[in-house]
Amino acid sequence: MKLDEICSILTDHIMKQFQIESDDDEFTPDVHLFDYGYIDSFGATELTSFVESRFEIEVTKKDLMLHKMNTINEIAAFVAMKRGN
């Protein structure tokens, strides 16, 4: 799976799950999802579960400490790395 495909899947899910309007100019692949208030701590848990099930990977506590996963691009890069892409 290519990085842009992972980004697209993540973007679609986040927009739908967290009710982000399609015309939100601040919502980009590089926006800090937590600092900008798109996702809270409960949302982070949901997003982690989605990433694990959709991309068939495990996100460990160590992964969360070692890898930045605050933006769509960072999450997509992490997914690609875990999948060996």
Automatic annotation (TrEMBL):
SUPFAM superfamilies assigned to the protein according to its UniProt record, in alphabetical order: ACP-like
Annotated signal sequence range: none
Domain Carrier per the UniProt entry, residue ranges: 4-83
Protein name: Acyl carrier protein
Upper taxonomic lineage: Bacteria, Bacillati, Bacillota, Bacilli, Bacillales
